[in-house]
Amino acid sequence: MAQFVFENDMHSLLKLDMPITNAPMARWQRKSASANTSALSPSKSMNRSLGKSKTPNKTPGKNGKLQCTPSKVGGDRYIPSRSNKQMDVASFLLSKDNEPVDPNASTEMQKAWSVNLNGYDVEEAKILHLGGKPLNAPEGYQNNLRVLYSQVTTPVSMKKSRYISTVPDRILDAPDLRNDFYLNLLDWSSQNLLAVALHNSVYLWDASQGDITLLMKMEQEQDYICSVSWVKEGNYLAIGTSDGKVQLWDVEKQKRLRSMASHTARVCSLSWNNHILSSGSRSGHIHHHDVRVPDHHIFTLTGHSQEVCGLKWSPDGKYLASGGNDNLVYVWPGLTEGGNQGAINCFTSHQGAVKALAWCPWQPNILASGGGTSDRHIRIWNTHTGTCTNSLDTQSQISSLVFAPNYKELVSGHGFACDGLVIWKYPSMTKVAEFLGHEGRVLNLTLSPDCSTVASVAADETVRLWKCFELDPLTKKAKEKMAKSTNSIIHQGIR
Fold this sequence. Notes:
Residues 27-80 are annotated as: Disordered. By secondary structure, the protein is α+β, with helices and mostly antiparallel strands. It has helices at 2-14, 27-40, 44-53, 84-95, 107-118, 473-494; strands at residues 58-60, 66-68, 170-173, 186-188, 193-198, 201-206, 212-217, 225-230, 236-241, 245-250, 255-261, 267-273, 276-281, 285-290, 297-302, 308-313, 319-324, 329-333, 345-347, 354-359, 366-371, 377-382, 387-393, 398-404, 409-414, 421-425, 430-435, 442-447, 454-458, 462-466.
């Protein structure tokens, strides 16, 4: 029994969770007891020890003078001097929410008191103030980070709120349209007239009034229209036919002015450069016609071995681009007094027929070209250096290209297997929108005079108008004002 009691006592002594009655006081207990004692009744010895270790109030400086030092422990940190008025205003703004509102005091009276006492209205006072204007990135700069704030309004082309409808604004019926990839059957004039070639007839649609006019019809039923092209002023229309002729029509009088015969095969591409009309034929030849003189054929360009299905003069009239069924793209110089020289550049990268050609309106040395079913690539060329600056595989036949200057974008028309339109951001060539409304391959594209609408004609015998480049009202008003001022200057010079 005694041994059992001894073992229980030893077991209870070895337990760590049992309080030790005769152990010395713990350090934290002694520390708390001394703190309570000093806080309640400080002793003389403690005051004496503190006084000995106290930092002196003044210490000698470098110049022999005494400088003030903090008297509290840990008070040697730097505290900047602040205006008492700012501290008072900040304290008032932080604490006034807890005070009751005086219903008798009016807002005007409180504002007057604040202005008289402080020199400004406390309600308009700010503890923090952000100043300075943010810098805008240069044009063409791309950043993956989204801009959250900019004091200056961003250009229209960079607005994320731009809405592009994938539904056509209007659909026109185009019966008997020839489903031929190599023909150019659509063009929009500067006088807002849309010319459409339907088999052996040419129709005009007034976009402002909605009227439709039959301009001409070929005499022979087996003949057909291969190409149409408006002069820059919009009062004359050139028509290329399957019998190798180029007809010139006065639209206002609805009268044929002349019929120019020089080609031996059909004329499927036309392009104007002031009074010079260039025509491309199935024979591979390009003829320059001076429409002012009886002997209109002034020069022939030879380079293509097959049909010339694409032909575009640059906006400044210095270069002529041609694309053919031989997969080649030529860049020719403008006409000179000594005659026309050979091609400046010959691009051989395409693996299919090149019908789609477009010059950049804001960069005259940039040319875009698109290949057919075997190629399906959009290529951007710098005609000054002769290099390809960008190449994009669209996975679809490319039949037409148009630059949209309002938003600096490129529109492409496609056949197999897309049968639609695609808007690309230039020069990054990222896809902006895609339109798949047509039920057949798109054959031609053209842009409206105000560059807000693109028209497409397809094998489904419809012409669809896509209003996807409309400017915002402020930018549109500024452009119209600039155009009016330019016209007034020109009229003054003529007078």
